[in-house]
Design goal:
Elements: E1 20-28, H1 44-49, E2 62-63, E3 68-69, E4 73-76, E5 91-95, E6 100-101, E7 104-108, E8 112-117, E9 123-128, E10 135-139, E11 145-149, E12 154-160, E13 168-174, E14 179-181, E15 187-193, E16 196-203, E17 210-211, E18 215-220, E19 225-227, E20 230-233
Parallel strand pairs: 1-19, 1-20, 5-8, 7-13
Antiparallel strand pairs: 1-15, 2-3, 4-14, 4-16, 5-6, 8-11, 9-10, 9-12, 12-13, 16-18, 17-20
Length: 236
Amino acid sequence: MAAAAVGLVGLSAGATLADGTVKGKINFDGKMAKPKAIRVSADAFCMQAHQDKPLTAETYVFNMEKATLCNVVVYVKGPVEGTFAVPSKPVIIDQKGCQYIPHVVGAMVGQTVEFHNSDSTAHNLKFTSEKNGTFNEGQPVAGMVKDVKFDSPEQHMHLACNVHAWMNAYIFTFDHPFFAVSDENGEYEIKGLPAGKYTLAVWHEFDKFSPVKEEIEFEVTDGGTTEVDFTYQPPQ
């Protein structure tokens, strides 16, 4: 059951971010399956791009050595009071090697998200969401870029390619900058938190995996670092 956020402290307009940090890892308590190879034989470019290393599905990606789960969205569950500057640096989703890189991204509302095609083959951007509209556009030429700014906070908006059925990605938008995606080590870090009490929540695309706790309350001091780990499990 979702728990309410406790004592969230935000920033006033024009203020700078504070120095509190929350970081941790996403453990996985169970058998970790190896990535499944994807057949790309229908596209000569995709075959050439992966002749040395097969393309694999990203529905779940583990760090086998650390027993952690990658591509988990970790975020402070709001509302977070205050006004936060939208980053001028864009979030980039690249179509490279016939896959979306990265597979999961977060952005602030109003931040530019750039969709690139770095492949010398045709791709397609099929974007669907509940609050931020839809679009379905081809990118047939390498070097093409589409810029988008999303107006509303929303979770797990979906991006797919009509040309290559295996290609998909997820986009999250937030009205604050306190979010991260667990990296190749299954680790995350969120910086700039004002001192206070917060609720941290997680999301992963594979709904057969479930976290032991979906939300964890924590406290951070100004200049301090708090460690919060989550643990996912396979179906019981």
